[in-house]
Amino acid sequence: NVDALLAELRAELEELARFRASSLAEAEARRVAEDAKRQQLEEEVARLTAEVRESRSRAAEFDAAMRRAVEQHEQHEATVQRDEERLQVQEEELRAQHTSGGEQAPTALESELARLREDFEARKALDSARRKALEAEVASL
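Above: the chain sequence. Below: its structure as tokens.
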């Protein structure tokens, strides 16, 4: 009887030892899985933080490019306005000269007017190219 009880106790102890080992293994597996999940979340937070920084940086670059574009546009508009006013004054002077002196050969004023018109058209073309380049820069941001 004693031997049978001892054998039964040994079997129960072995079962308890297996259960304990199994429970420890399950607990370790859960801990490893939780550590992996925590590491994954930390990496995701770091990635998102970097993306936010990059986005803010691009937004600042965009704002600066827009400020430059507005500034350049305003400068160009002022230059165009001055050039148009100067051309108008010179055209009026040329007309007055022609009406008072009849038809004459091209004068220095006419030559200057033609040169100013060419300069004006060249500036408009250059501004258009600059505007397109700036728009492309802004679009790339």
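The chain is about 95% helix and 0% strand.
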